[in-house]
Amino acid sequence: MNEQNNNVEPEVDENHLIQIRREKLIELQQNGQDPFAITKYDRTHTSKNIKDNYQELEGKDVSIAGRIMAKRIMGKASFCTLQDSEGRIQSYVSINDLGEETYKAFKTWDIGDIIGIKGFVFKTRTEEISIHAKEAVLLTKSLRPLPEKFHGLKNEDLRYRQRYVDLIVNPEVKETFIIRSKIMKEIRKFMDEKGYMEVETPTLTTVATGDAARPFVTHHNTLDLQMYLRIAPELNLKRLIVGGFDKVFEIGKNFRNEGMDIKHNPEFTVMEFYSAYEDYNDMMNMAEQLISTVAQNALGTTKINYQGTEIDLTPSWRRITMIDAIKEVTGVDFNTIKTDEEAQKLAKQKGVEYDDIKNTRGHIINEFFETFVEETLIQPTFIMDYPVEVSPLTKRKKDNPSLVERFELFIGGREYGNAYSELNDAIDQYQRLMKQVEAKEKGDEEAGGMDEDFVNALEIGMPPTGGMGIGLDRLIMLLTDSASIRDILFFPTMKPLSDRQ
After folding, report:
1. Residue 252: which residues within 8 A CB-CB, separation 6 or more?
2. List of long-range contacts for 144-151, beta carbons under 8 Å, 24+ apart
């Protein structure tokens, strides 16, 4: 029984279609033609190679392999469309070239089957570049039909769960991941040209610190030890600065046991980089150079469109303090608010929420910014000089010790990077980590722990250092105009289905 006719599935229950395909496989195996017994297939070209070099290849033999995406049976001659890693190409298949037995078998092959074709390159009467098949072989039998009559997988939940199918039927999805790969290559190229060494540090840690976040907890059986998936590589990278590496960067996964939405996945890709003898001003220069250069090299432009909004990534970017940004948007000047009590009273008046743990003037300044300002920052903007209470790893400002030399980068109302003039005073660092421990003991699940060895490293001596972390998934969303983080992750975290689909 032929499952499809001219690339249109009959309206048949999917389980029945799967059964038909399995019966075809059994018949092939019984006849000694098991496609899964084939171990390799020699290809000479891809679909793109052939189309790009048609003038040279016309009339010459090529060998190509790919998935059948369409078939048009016309008696003793047929056409099929193959899709490989670089695109699609048509093949003309006839009984005169393949012989009666192979052509008969070809007619039973299904949409989704993977085949190999050998033949010469030509153009049809409609000027379509094609392959005139001399040989055809079934390499893999597809046991499940492609979705929705092969016109594309639209259900988002199913797309994310079955990304392999999504990549087959939605070419634009594949293009997004190709661009992601280009972006990552350009990032590494830029960092190398700036003299940074790429390093790798542990993902499994004994202390959950380096940022404010709830960690994933696990257990090491042999050591009988509670461990954590890292929330940030920061402290290990700064240990390397102590050890004498002046410029280091790491691209890797962080893990945070928190909420999920269009901007957040429990595991995500970041880059952190640190440079000795520099400060947060140098990190601002580095960030705008990095992102604008990567955009230009990967996309060919620094002027992009994100979800309908034009964004110009061309340097130089705006720089403004957090307190000035709040004043600009709300009219509230925190330079005139001196005490925690004054800040709490103002927060109540303006409807800004705070809790019994995060109730200081510094915490409330940060809450004002997140409530009123963040979403207004559309063009690239560096927000500078954060309160010390929300920045436990950052050097204080000389002229105002209640603030620190820290900035975050905002584009399109979202944060893309976080940077400091790194705190290298071991005594101050110990005291601030102790405050984090106290906050954790009071119930703050996002507060970091004490890392005695890191304090010990600072006591050995870390030079003045600038450091920055950039959320690469979020940056890739921006540069590929992707609405959700799930659109730029091959396999985003999903709640398991109760039954096998």
Report:
1. 200, 201, 203, 233, 269, 270
2. 144/14, 144/18, 144/21, 144/112, 145/3, 145/9, 145/14, 145/17, 145/18, 145/21, 145/110, 145/111, 145/112, 146/111, 146/112, 149/8, 149/9, 150/7, 150/9, 150/69, 150/70, 150/111
Tell me the CATH number for domain 169-317+379-488.
3.30.930.10
What CATH number belongs to 14-151? 2.40.50.140
- What's the pLDDT tens digit per position in 453-501? 999 999 999 999 999 999 999 999 999 999 999 999 999 999 888 754 4
pTM of the shown model: 0.90
Burial of 6 from C-beta contacts in 10 A (0-12 / 13-18 / 19+): exposed
Q: What is the pLDDT of residues 253-263, one digit of tens each?
A: 999 999 899 99
CB 255 within 8 A of CB 270: no
Helix (H) / strand (E) element for 478: namely: helix 472-480
Every domain of the chain and the residues it spans: 14-151, 169-317+379-488
